[in-house]
Amino acid sequence: MPRPRTNPFTVLLGIVGIAFTLTAASYCVSVLRGVRPTALASAHSFDALMSGHGTAILAGELLLLAISTAGSIAVDELGHRKTRRLLREERQRRGDDSGASAAAGAESAGAGGS
Predict the structure, then answer these.
(1) What is the pTM of this model?
(2) Is the pLDDT higher at 2 or at 68?
(3) Are 31 and 62 within 8 A, CB to CB?
(4) What's the DSSP call for residue 108?
(5) What is the DSSP string of 29-80?
(6) Integer Cα distance of 13 and 65 in angstroms
(7) In angstroms, rounded to a whole number, what is the distance separating the alpha carbons of residues 43 and 36?
């Protein structure tokens, strides 16, 4: 059987999952810096981005994760259906071939014994 193709949604799921993890960790650091301000902590543009838009970015990435998950499951299911159909056709072909040769063998054995 040929090697199965890579599911593009699974690749997207991995990339978005890593991005979501990094964004969630950055958002947590931003929140902790807001709760416990220190004199040494300088305001960084990334902290400002996370403070202002962190929730929206996380929500967008969560939506991408949901879409990627559904797409990955759908593509895998369609691929498995095709594989199951091909296997079923192969079994039927082998069953018909072996059934026909077994019937021919039984007829020739019966004819020779008479």
Answers:
(1) 0.65
(2) 68
(3) no
(4) H
(5) HHHHHHHS--SSPPP-HHHHHHHHHHHHHHHHHHHHHHHHHHHHHHHHHHHH
(6) 6
(7) 13
Give the integer Cα–Cα distance in Å for 13 and 59.
Answer: 15
Whole-number pLDDT of residue 39: 59
Contact 66, 12 (CB under 8 A): no
What pLDDT, on the 0 to 100 scale, is given for residue 64? 95
Block residue for tokens 């072909």: 93
Residue at 65: amino acid letter:
L
Report the C-alpha gap between 104 and 108 in whole angstroms.
6
CA proximity to 30, closest of 2, 54, 14, 13: 54
Domain spans of the chain?
A: 8-35+44-77
Location of structure tokens 């091909």: 86
